Amino acid sequence: MSTQAMVAPPVNRAMRVLDRNFFTRIVATSAARIFNTKDISKCRGQLLKTHELLDMDRVIPIRVDPDQEREKAGGKCIVLRPEVVHNDPKTWSPKLQDLERSGTVAVIPFQLHLDYSHYNYSEILGAIIPPEETVHDNLPVGFSQAGHVAHLNLRDKYLPYKHIIAAVLADKNPAVRTVINKVDTVGTENAFRTFPYEVLSGPDDMNVTLREQGCEFSFDFAKVYWNSRLHTEHERLCDIFNEGEAICDVMAGVGPFAIPAGKKKCFVYANDLNPDSFKYLQHAMDVNKVGDFVRAFNEDGHTFIRTATAELLKADHSVSVYPKKKRGQPAPKATRRLVQPRIFSHYIMNLPASAITFLPSFIGLYSNIPGISVSEARQMFAPHTEIPLPMIHVYCFSTKSDDNVAETKEICEEISRQLNFEVAPNKTPDMQIWDVRDVAPKKRMFCASFRLPAEVAFREV
Description:
By secondary structure, the protein is of the alpha/beta class. The protein has helices at 3-7, 40-49, 68-72, 94-101, 121-126, 162-172, 231-240, 258-263, 275-287, 301-314, 374-378, 405-419, 454-457; strands spanning 25-34, 62-64, 76-79, 105-114, 144-146, 149-152, 178-182, 197-201, 207-212, 215-220, 246-249, 267-271, 294-297, 318-321, 336-339, 346-349, 391-398, 432-440, 443-451. It has 3 domains: 25-114, Alpha-Beta Plaits; 136-205, 2-Layer Sandwich (GMP Synthetase, Chain A, domain 3), CATH 3.30.300; 211-457, Rossmann fold (3-Layer(aba) Sandwich), CATH 3.40.50.150. It has 13 helices and 19 strands. It has a 7-stranded mixed beta sheet, sandwiched between helices. The radius of gyration is 31 Å and the shape is elongated. This is tRNA (guanine(37)-N1)-methyltransferase.
């Protein structure tokens, strides 16, 4: 029998409640008794090279000698693979035979005690869930984590094992205290993208604290939307922003774009319709000390696009920038002053299920501002000034393919329909369809970024 088979966990396909004691087993193998403890390091290295050392995760190969007298004297041995038979030198490598002949080691029988702690998540579940259940799918190893909460989205066929899956996941991930399973699709029951869930393991404590892009966020995971798998996307978009720019985050949530942008000294108008998201966004502003740069709003996104644009044109705000204060030294003087722009450089619309339907709010964005004529509005932008029209970053869902050609066409057609103006990568300035992530076997999340066309921005409506 191979080493892998001999050290594998025992199998129990009927288990429905996790029994950790079941995964205890004794493996009959061999060990190299070390007569002089000064030789342990040398012998371990040589036996590792000959592949005779039992090199198994979570199994320490250096053990006390099984002989009680030798154990009391500090004797040690090195556990060998089961294929190395203690009384059959033919199974030994030439190096091990040399070590034995020189009196450096003696090959002895050894009983290796393994238990639940020696096996990882996949090994335990593989010993419980029948192989036929995983023919077309891998074991349910994927989960997202927000603070101490692990969030599963189990397929129906794994529901009979849900409590075992959750218990093992919590055992094998020290940072996880609570495991939940989503029981409905995000957005079908709640416009705020919260979802009904069941607690499978641990306390029903959804108040989490986590860090992303050097910022701290604390919130009730049951009351707001958060997806830790989007951290690279949050970072990608924030990297585009430049210090001193004005950003309009229309569906800001608790601030995964807004707070890091504020840290970069961008001026951010951050809005969310969910009162709880608004509350935790304000908390994040305080904790991360970005209140000079970020303003929070609790409005409908359709209206906010227009009101925030008009308000920024009239707002007068600036922030003094100070060098970092060194301990024991007096407060430094301001080195410069950042003046808030009167025009947004970027609009973020991270509501992929419906954000595209908010695009009509950009039609005539600069043609219906009280006190400003269309001609005056045009004079604010290039070619009359160096200020370009803003970038729009709108998230959406589509199908998935290897090249995303059909998806790009479909997304552009829908954007064009909403704006009543043709938008396409080869026609619209700075347009890019960014593949964000897969969200289901046939569903993918995208970010469509494009510069607001002048024909849309100044259209009289």
